[in-house]
């Protein structure tokens, strides 16, 4: 923990209500959704301006105090955990939306703007912010950018990176960089903006962003399909994508859906059961789009790739169908799941899944393993649920033993050991699965340039 003198200096920099040292605040702001670490920050500060962020970063450099950024703390890799007396810098008080440009279709957001708030703002302007995920109601824009968040509509709209037209960042030195200024074309050398997207707060703090917006989608159709075999899922993806433009293509297992259904807030989509399900979403851009989708459904059923299905008939039904997929993570949180978030190129998914399924069946005979994910972009979420009788540390060690087999396969397929949740603390020691020795050395060198004293989220990513 930092010395009383340093706490006094923080209180001198910020008003009394914007420095927290009580136990509840330290626990709340010192931990993200990862449950394998005990939070132990020294204090939490709540800047309101860029100048205040600069001041606390410069102070941290002078006093050699580590800083940890805090957004919505919805991360799953320990990237926002403060466990060694760090000062947490929360962006809860920086949530202004400004500079909307209807011609350029851009808007400026401070780091603390909630994702859903931006989505609602865009809708009020007749536009759309398409980066979307279950944590939209609590995740913050700064954190989304720092982790290059993906979510449920990457098939159509891509990752957060695609929507960042400009950034204002405070580097680890306390310098302010205004990057790209919202320009659509700017061919003037290194685009430093993209270094900060996905950097997990290790180079500096994102304080505001100019984000691109899209046109509002037309009426949406949502289908849930019952699939007998995991290997049939990519056949369905290919068949539907050949005929219609997909916004999303998600999958989940029967085991995963049962945890959602057990809460009683949504119903099973149809009477029958299957081992796996696909949820797909498309825009009804033409009068016959729905008919085309149903024709593809019939053709796939004849091939035996699906055994049942439902197509939404109302906006409410579409939302209810989405909840079957989006509510999985929240439904299994009480089980303290160990999560693997991996990806391979879409064309290699069937072969990868077959090999991976064999590994998980062999290595986790006594654990409940849930499959779900954004399989249309090659992203699989594997969640292993902790048995009640097993201590958390013992459970984690058991899962990490199996990681060796899982990540070896990921490396063989030239995949990613963290497709969208980031690296943080939890996956830091596996970075070499996806990054070469040379890449990691360059990443370390880049960090030294922007954060020479190592005060920015130390121990995360690298």
UniProtKB/TrEMBL annotation:
UniProt cofactor(s): FAD
Family: Belongs to the FAD-binding oxidoreductase/transferase type 4 family.
Pfam families with a match to the protein in the record: FAD-oxidase_C, FAD_binding_4
Domain of life: Bacteria
Keyword Acyltransferase: no
Coiled coil: none
UniProt keywords, alphabetically: FAD, Flavoprotein, Oxidoreductase
UniProt keyword Flavoprotein present: yes
Domain FAD-binding PCMH-type: 37-216
Alphabetized InterPro entries for the sequence: FAD-bd_oxidored_4_C (IPR004113), FAD-bd_PCMH (IPR016166), FAD-bd_PCMH-like_sf (IPR036318), FAD-bd_PCMH_sub1 (IPR016167), FAD-bd_PCMH_sub2 (IPR016169), FAD-linked_Oxase-like_C (IPR016164), FAD-oxidored/transferase_4 (IPR051264), Oxid_FAD_bind_N (IPR006094)
Species of the source: Pseudogulbenkiania subflava DSM 22618
Biological process (GO), any one: respiratory electron transport chain
Molecular function per GO: FAD binding; oxidoreductase activity
Protein name per Swiss-Prot or TrEMBL: FAD/FMN-containing dehydrogenase
């Amino acid at each position: 923990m930092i010395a009383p003198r340093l706490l006094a200096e923080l209180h001198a920099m910020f008003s009394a209500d914007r420095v927290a040292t009580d136990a509840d605040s330290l626990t709340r702001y010192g931990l993200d959704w990862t449950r394998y670490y005990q939070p132990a920050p020294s204090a939490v500060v709540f800047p309101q301006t860029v100048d205040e962020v600069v001041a606390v970063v410069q102070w941290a450099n002078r006093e050699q105090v580590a800083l940890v950024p805090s957004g919505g703390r919805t991360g799953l890799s320990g990237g926002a955990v403060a466990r060694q007396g760090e000062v947490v810098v929360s962006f809860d008080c920086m949530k202004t939306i400004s500079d909307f440009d209807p011609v350029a279709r851009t808007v400026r957001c401070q780091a603390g703007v909630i994702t859903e708030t931006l989505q609602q703002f865009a809708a009020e302007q007749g536009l759309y912010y398409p980066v979307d995920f279950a944590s939209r109601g609590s995740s913050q824009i700064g954190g989304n950018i720092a982790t290059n968040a993906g979510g449920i509509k990457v098939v159509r709209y891509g990752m957060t990176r695609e929507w960042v037209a400009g950034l204002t960042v405070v580097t680890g030195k306390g310098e302010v960089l205004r990057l790209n200024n919202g320009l659509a074309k700017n061919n003037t050398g290194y685009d430093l903006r993209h270094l900060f997207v996905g950097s997990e707060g290790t180079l500096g703090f994102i304080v505001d962003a100019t984000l691109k917006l899209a046109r509002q989608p037309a009426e949406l159709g949502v289908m849930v399909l019952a699939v007998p075999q995991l290997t049939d899922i990519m056949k369905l993806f290919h068949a539907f994508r050949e005929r219609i433009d997909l916004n999303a293509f998600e999958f989940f297992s029967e085991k995963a859906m049962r945890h959602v259904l057990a809460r009683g807030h949504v119903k099973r989509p149809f009477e029958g059961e299957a081992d796996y399900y696909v949820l797909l979403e498309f825009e009804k851009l033409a009068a016959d789009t729905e008919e085309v989708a149903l024709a593809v459904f019939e053709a796939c059923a004849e091939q035996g790739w699906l055994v049942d299905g439902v197509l939404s008939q109302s906006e409410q039904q579409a939302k209810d169908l989405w909840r079957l997929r989006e509510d999985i993570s929240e439904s299994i949180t009480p089980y303290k799941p160990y999560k693997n978030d991996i990806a391979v190129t879409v064309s290699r998914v069937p072969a990868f899944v077959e090999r991976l399924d064999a590994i998980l069946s062999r290595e986790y005979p006594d654990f409940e393993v849930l499959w779900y994910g954004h399989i249309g972009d090659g992203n699989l979420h594997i969640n292993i649920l902790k048995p009640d009788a097993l201590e958390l540390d013992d459970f984690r060690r058991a899962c990490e033993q199996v990681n060796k087999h899982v990540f070896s396969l990921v490396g063989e397929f030239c995949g990613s050991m963290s497709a969208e949740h980031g690296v943080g603390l939890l996956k830091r020691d596996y970075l070499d699965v996806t990054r070469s020795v040379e890449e990691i050395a360059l990443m370390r060198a880049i960090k030294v340039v922007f954060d020479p004293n190592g005060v920015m989220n130390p121990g995360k990513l690298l």
